[in-house]
Amino acid sequence: MSIADNLLKYKTELDESGVKLIAVSKYHQASAIQEAYDAGQRVFGENIVQEMVEKESLLPKDIDWHLIGHLQTNKIKYIAPFVRLIESVDSLKLLIEINKQATKNKRIIDCLLQIYVADEDTKFGLEYDEAIELLRSQEYSEMQNIRIVGLMGIASNNALEKQTLDEFMELKVLFDGIKVSFFRKEESFKEISMGMSGDYKLAVGAGSTMVRIGSNIFGKRIIKHYKAE
User: Fold this and answer.
1) Which residues, 6 or more positions from 105, have their beta carbon under 8 angstroms from its beta carbon?
2) Is the CB of residue 63 less than 8 Å from the CB of residue 56?
3) Is residue 228 part of a domain?
4) Residue 183's domain spans which residues?
5) Geometric angle at alpha carbon 219, from 213 and 223, rounded to 5°
6) In the prediction, which pLDDT does 220 show?
7) DSSP calls for the chain
8) How far lies 116's CA from each of 30, 34, 84, 89, 156, in Å?
9) Phi-psi sector, 212: left (phi>0), alpha (psi -120 to 50), beta
10) Sign of CA dihedral 141, 147, 153, 154
11) How far is CA 78 from the centre of its chain?
12) Which of 4, 22, 58, 183 could bond to 45 as cystine, CB 3.0-4.6 Å?
């Protein structure tokens, strides 16, 4: 099947639920992204800053670029001029730097707080109490150029279906609590990004508003290694 056919399959299914499809284009060529764009896709997720910057320079300017991987503070300046959503905010330090770079670019950058929900040590994210502490902090209250619009979480790898669903449901409960406590009057706080190729149906059932699908749309990745800057 073509990229367009793969997209149609997911979009037809997800549109019925009102869930946004993020096409994860990490390690895929700009030409593949262009093919998806020509088929109507506008939201793409990248994990690597250098790769995102290269592709942004080659592709249409109305693409919504989401940074979905672990982000280092010294790399934010490269994506601050154009990134639509940073899904992987996992510390107050990172949020402070995003706000700083957004201010320099005279933009407001939308962000998701990445919450640690997995039962393993390899994932990044804020613990529940850390997320609450961040939102209560003086530093956060003074930020003018970021907007937190929701939460993101990644379930445990190769877990049983029940565990995966439990992790998604825990994130939804936390989202609801944070919404009531901190964003009651802000309609923009509405996104829960959870679910990938293998578990997106469980995520949608648990309340996800965004799912991240990569190889099932684009096919096998061609890995390109980037040198550390």
Assistant:
1) 80, 81
2) yes
3) no
4) 3-218
5) 95
6) 80
7) --HHHHHHHHHHHHHTTTPEEEEE-TT--HHHHHHHHHTT--EEEES-HHHHHHHHHHS-TT-EEEE-S---GGGHHHHTTT-SEEEEE--HHHHHHHHHHHHHTT--EEEEEEE--SSSSS---B-HHHHHHHHHSHHHHT--SEEEEEEEE-PPTT--HHHHHHHHHHHHHHHHHHHHHH-TT-TT--EEEEEETTTHHHHHHHT-SEEEE-HHHH-S---------
8) 31, 33, 23, 11, 10
9) beta
10) negative
11) 17
12) 22
List b or e across 38-72, with b for residues whose CB sees 16 or more CB atoms inside 10 angstroms: ebebebbbbbbbbbbbebbeebeeebbbbbbbebe
Contact 121, 156 (CB under 8 A): no
Q: Is residue 67 in a domain?
A: yes
Q: Is residue 226 part of a domain?
A: no
Tens of pLDDT, residues 196-219: 999 999 999 999 999 999 989 998
**Is 176 among the domain residues?**
yes
Using alpha carbons, select from 142, 136, 148, 76 the residue that is nearest to residue 108: 148
pLDDT tens for each residue of 113-162: 999 998 877 668 999 999 999 999 999 999 999 999 999 999 998 889 99
Both tokens of 106, joined, read: 């005279």
Residue 218 token pair: 């684009």
Percentage of the chain exceeding pLDDT 70: 95
CATH number at residue 123: 3.20.20.10
Distance in angstroms (rounded) separating the CA atoms of residues 178 and 74: 29
